[in-house]
Amino acid sequence: MNILFVHQSFPGQYRHLAPALAARGHQVAALTMGAKPAAQPGVNVVRYTVRRGNAPGMHPWAAEFETKVLRGESAAFASLKLGTEGFKPDVICAHPGWGEALFLKDVWPDARLLTYCEFYYRAYGADMNFDPEFATPGTGADARIRAKNAGNLLSLEATDWGISPTHWQRSLFPEWAQSRISVIHDGIDTSLARPDPRARLQLEEFGLDLRHGDEVVTFVNRNLEPQRGCHVFMRALPELLRRRPKAQVLIVGGDKQGYGAPPPAGRTWKEVFLDEVRADIDLARVHFLGTVPYPVFLRLLQVSAAHVYLTYPFVLSWSALEAMSSGCLVIGSRTGPVEEVIDDGRNGLLVDFFDPQALACTIADALADPGACLPLRERARADALAKYDLHGVCLPRQVALVEALAEQVPPALPVAAPFQTPGVTTC
To answer: Dmax of the chain from CA atoms?
Structure first.
């Protein structure tokens, strides 16, 4: 069969699925706007660009939709060119988040469109207006979020089937669409992210030589920002370091503009939140590593005594599951995406997102009694293997879904009931 992948930054979430399908003998092509498309074994990667820019004077609520239409137009014309070269897809796997999926069914009406249902925006009930410190309530902000879903809705209308990585993420989509969305995670390579009691992390530039069993607290973001709880973690440090004088804190994350609100002009969120606590912490024990190579990230997880993962109600980070797979003690925020994977007191610990004092105490107590945390770490690893293993669980299900769609049959995989937020428990 012929399979087309469309993703602004291919491979993105398709980095394992596309080559896996090619290895099974399917003809696989991919369209992307990425400046330097990553080569994928057996995949014909084609780069395209937008045909023009946004029109001046566009209404601010409509500007993002115009951007998505422009990208959708460019993807459609790139698709037409593929057609003239003899490629006709049976299945199109597309991420609709940037607009590329809007007109694909108009080019190939007989193809089955499988969209990656990552996130459906809401003014309330998800990340927007969750954090009062950075909320922007009001008609303009809320209307902008409603308009932001225009591309999502049009892509859903054209979609034959959807795939979402978690039940919580699927639960955000309109109820009428959820019955056509399978929940299959992207998958974690548990053979790489695995426990290692002999792990050692040497970072000469920071004067660190750390081993499994040391009091190492880890915190990882793609970019340090409120959306992923950077401010809460930083505010927990004074109490944590006071209670645990031997603890070393490793913070991974860049300073680029990430999700959510931008920092004040000329500053980074790291600078803003570090300045809040600078006078109250021992900076010799707080290490900002910036971005690190993946092997260093994995070794960091293997030496971690407590891994903190905080997030607004938003897309669940791969790093949370990689930490579980590495046998970390994950201390997470009691927010929907985290509650789906961390069962408080069974395979990790949960704290209120807005309570840095509780976070500090929970981390300190865990460091004080590592033996009591061992069963939680073991269950976290077991859950990662059973539910999120790339090669044994997730990738085979993804492949089966694509091939079922190509055969014009309903997906054989069951669709779980809508996600229900677990009952709140106290530590």
So the answer is: 68
Shortest CA distance to 309 belongs to which of 350, 264, 276, 340? 350
Q: Are 381 and 327 in contact (CB under 8 A)?
A: yes
Whole-angstrom CA distances from 342 to 298, 301, 320, 369 are 20, 17, 10, 20
> Model pTM?
0.92
Alpha carbon distance 308, 306 (integer Å): 6
- Scored b (16 or more CB within 10 A) or e, 189-210 reads bbeebbbeeebebebeeeebeb
- pLDDT tens per residue across span 86-115: 999 999 999 999 999 999 999 999 999 999
Residue found by looking up tokens 């290692």 in the block: 196
> What does residue 126 show for φ and ψ, rounded to 5 degrees?
-140, -135
Q: Where are the beta strands (DSSP E) in 16-132?
A: 27-32, 43-47, 91-94, 112-116
pLDDT digits (tens, 9 = 90+) for 296-331: 999 999 999 999 999 999 999 999 999 999 999 999
Look-up: residue for tokens 């055969």? 407
Query: For the residues of 76-94, what is the DSSP string, one character each?
Result: HHHHHHHHHTT---SEEEE
Domain 200-388, CATH number (from 1.10.1040.10, 3.40.50.2000, 3.90.1150.10, 3.40.50.1970): 3.40.50.2000
Place of tokens 């937008």: 50
Separation of alpha carbons 223 and 230, rounded Å: 9
Q: How crowded is residue 88: how many other Cβ atoms within 10 Å of its Cβ?
A: 13
Angle between helices 150-158 and 60-84 (to 10 degrees): 30
Q: What residue ranges of the chain are covered by domains with CATH 3.40.50.2000? A: 2-187+390-406, 200-388
What is the SS3 assignment for 99? coil
Beta pairing partners, 183:
164
Q: Which fold has domain 2-187+390-406?
A: Rossmann fold (3.40.50)
Query: Residue 199 and residue 303: Cα distance in Å, rounded?
Result: 6
Range 410-426 burial, b when 16+ CB lie within 10 A, else e = ebeeeeeeebeeeeeee
